[in-house]
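Final report, Chapter 2: Outcomes

The project's central promise was a pipeline that accepts a single protein chain and returns its three-dimensional structure in a standardized token representation, suitable for archiving and comparison. That pipeline is now operational. To close this chapter, we reproduce one record exactly as it appears in the project archive, with the input sequence first and the structure output second.
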Amino acid sequence: MTLYNFKPRSTICQVPDVNHVICLGVHKQVEYNAAVHRTMLSPLWISRASAVQRAGRTGRTRPGTVYRLYSKALFESKMEAFDSGEMARQQLDGVIVKLRSMLDTNVVPILESVLTPPPLEHVGKAFESLYSDGLLSAADDDGVLTSLGGFVAKLGLDLRLGRLIGLGAMFGVLPEAVSLSNKYEKEGNCEEHSTRTFFVIVCCSAS
């Protein structure tokens, strides 16, 4: 049996009787883009540890061959030793809001103490975004959750959807805001469109 290995290590299944493994050396992974302050699914080279793991038992505990469709030079120069920690690959707005709501203390020391701390640049971007959205009172670690931020934290939704519902309650269009947030959650789209459509609803209700 030949196994074309894309990313089977994300499962707990062991495929028996695999004599040959073909490893492409790439995968798609969620990465944080600081330029636009968004997480994106991007094609990336796997780590060297993942390359070893992708072989599974083939050539290790049983006879077989692993065909790696990339050069040794690329393996050594382009591939990191290990995958980066999840904290360094995600947008930190939600993490900061949850920590603030649970502990009511500065969050930077907590983030710096985790096993793989995120870059301070990512933390700063998250503070700026939360302040801009009206969820924090200041764009740094001294800021506290606003009334809107506290409300959103209790909802347990995506921050943009929670903010949409919170603004709907403030402007007296809560049913419409809940319906709209449900629509965007099902479509997996809670970006700028939700805020733009919300203000259309507010203007129509006011008129």
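Archive annotation: Confidence is low (pLDDT under 50) at residues 8-12, 192-207.
This record, like all others produced under the grant, will remain available to the consortium after the project formally closes.
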